[in-house]
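User: Before I run my own analysis I want an independent prediction to cross-check against. Here's the chain; please return only the structure tokens and, at the end, one sentence I can use as a sanity check.
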Amino acid sequence: MTITQRPLHPSVGVELKDLGSAESLAGDATEIIRDAAHIHGCALVRGLALEAGDLARIAHILGEPLPPYRPQYSAPGHPEIVGIGNIREGGEVVTYLNRGGVEWHSDSPGSSHPPGYTLLYCLENAIPDGGGETGFASTVSGYAALPDGLKARIEKLDLIQSFNTFNDQVAAYDGSTVASQDGELRERNRDTVDPIVQTHPATGARHLYVSHAMVKEIPGMALAEGMKLVMEVVERATAPELIYKHAWRPGDLIAFDNRSCLHTPFPYAYDDFPRTRRRLWQIIIGGRCG
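Assistant: Structure tokens:
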């Protein structure tokens, strides 16, 4: 298969052209997306007309779609697909909306599988007053950008990362439509102990693995001291010159590797609905075990 690749940014991301239609986006085409995400952090395909089943099929080729972390926003018939945005139906919010602002993260902490991939597909995006981009940053470029002294300080540093800690924070924001989780959902998203510096199993590249809003503890350090160090790493790795901000169009599909890419939402006029409308589909995919 012959495709054209266009860099989205010097440090992160690639657009894949001539990859085919929704019907042909399987097998070899999906493996091309996987390889591009490994190397570039994220891969964009534009102009697709995907149904929920198409997105689920692509996800199953990449790995194992994980159970929904917020099942109240799942797509009908496809619980692994979570709706993201500000859409209301019958006066009720039917998509997940994080009002927390810029929070660079991976979607993997707490997963029962090794870090895998995330698919984001744009169904609608009408933001007349601007904002609403999704930011992407390469954890490989971010690690390379750190000064040697900082690299030495974090070389053997572990983090305890907690989806539940993050979700509790999101639930506490003013106007949040997200509830704290308990019972089976809370048990499913267990804390993980993650080295902040890792080696990518597919590329051999050294990279960062950190979601600062999910950091619960830094073993061997006082939390305030450890978080100061973590935030220095994140701020350097996501410096403005290192990030790509994607302005969504309907039909855009972005796949990103949760090892080699951090991402974040940028705010928009969420409450100006229906004049302002955003709906994305998201599937988080666990890496293949074994």
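Sanity check: Residues 223-237 form the longest helix (15 residues).
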